Amino acid sequence: MMTHRFSFGFLAALMLLCSVLAGCGSQEAAAPKAERVVTDTTGREVHLPGEVKSIAVVPIPWASVAFAVDGSADRIAGMHPSAKASYEKSMLKVLAPGMANAATDFVGQDFSIHMEELGKLNPSAIIVWNYQEDEIAQLEKLKVPTIALKYGTLEDVQQGIRVIGQVFGKEERAEELVRFQQDIMAYFETKKAALEGKATPKVLYLRDRDLKVAAGGTVNTMMIETAGGVNVAKDVQGQWTPVTMEQIAAWDPDVIILSNFDPIQPADLFEDKLEGQNWKNIKAVREGRVYKAPIGLYRWDAPCVETPLMIKWIAQKLHPDVFNDYRLTDDLRGFYEKFFSYTLTDADLKMILHE
Prior knowledge:
- The structure is a single chain.
- By secondary structure, this protein is an alpha/beta fold.
- It is built from 16 helices and twelve strands.
- Helix 7 (about 155-170) runs antiparallel to helix 8 and helix 8 (about 170-190) runs parallel beside helix 14 (about 305-320).
């Protein structure tokens, strides 16, 4: 009889324990966060899973922006091949060595998306350019959360930073990055009076040895004008547009900036190494004012997190007497320490600034 009572009590306790465990299991099953809705820079509502575990990034600069916002590259599953090429010679390789494993097969150089390869990545979301309307429609049919970002102004970059902050749940950090940019742009407002009446240097921003230049449709015009110069190609239609050597000679720029989309170096112009081109009579070459643009987290040639620092760099090249109240190396060190807890070495600075 006692044995019977013992067995019955034991069984009841066991059932109670199972019930408690099952209840815990139910709570754990309910633990995943609820779906979230984010509005991208085009005004589209994008439904995201509660936890964004990984993203694929089509626009070239935005893998570096996503890293800056998240403070890590762990959730960047894929990036554009050109972004990977930039990564290989940038500070991202130092700060995020694991980013070397990010896939590139899902996107072509022309930004076309290879859906089968994207499926292998199975990202929580994908970031695309806003003009990729056909791809956006296809991705929506495939139920891939698709975030569209605009290209162009620094304000577009800042709005994109905020959107990515929402995607990653890093809204506060995103706002800090935006404030960093806005504070530097406010500094340039204080220099307008000092620039009045000064000669305005003519600047040519050269993308590559095929004579593609930063035309009126690029953010580079804003960079140059904010720094107190004029883009000689501002009336040329398009963005990176090919021109002739004759046109460059007619412009006769005072300063030439070489982009990081091509390995071209100032010595190539100073020593007239480029076949079929004649640079020795161009004023900027004669006076030794040809500079290679910096590369930090990404190429400073394009809209990115470090764009205001790029303008500071251009400003000291154009008007060293006006913009003599800061050391860009100090600004760089402060930026990397604040956002990435990383102290730039002298070698790092030399790599970023090509000095």
